[in-house]
Structures are given as C-alpha cells and as structure tokens.
C-alpha cells in the first residue's frame, strides 16, 4: 500500500467518523492524525462515548474499507 493509498483510506475513515459523530471537527481529526490514542480520546471528549464504543466504530470504519 502506498502512502497516497493510506492517506485516501484515512480520509474515508475521517468522513465516516464525522458522519457518526457530527460534533467532531476537522481540527479534532487533523490533530490526531496518526495518533490513535489521542484520536480516541478526542472523540470520547466530544461525544461522551466510551473508549470501547469509539474503538469499535473506528474498527468498523476500517473494516468497511477492506470489503
């Protein structure tokens, strides 16, 4: 997988996360780019969701790309 493909996949995942949690901003997702723990924490803070729920949503978004 090339760097461009990875970046494209990340953009798709960001879009899916923003669809699920409209309170997320581009800044939240941009700042956490490449830092999974920070991304999960930011989503938790914005949405009030549990860590497990956030991680599950991210995993589902990733899995959808593989289909």
**Gap between N and C termini:** 16 Å
Number of helices, counting only DSSP H or I runs of 4 residues or more: 4
Mean pLDDT over the residues: 80
Low-confidence stretches: none
SSE order, as H and E? HHHH
Helical content (DSSP H or I, runs of 4+)? over 70%
Strand portion: under 5%
Layout of helices and strands:
Elements: H1 3-20, H2 26-31, H3 36-47, H4 51-66
Question: What does this protein structure show overall?
Answer:
This protein has four helices and no strands. With 67 residues, it is mainly α.
Protein traits:
67 residues; single chain; 78% helix; mainly alpha; globular
Short description:
This protein has 67 residues and is mostly helical.
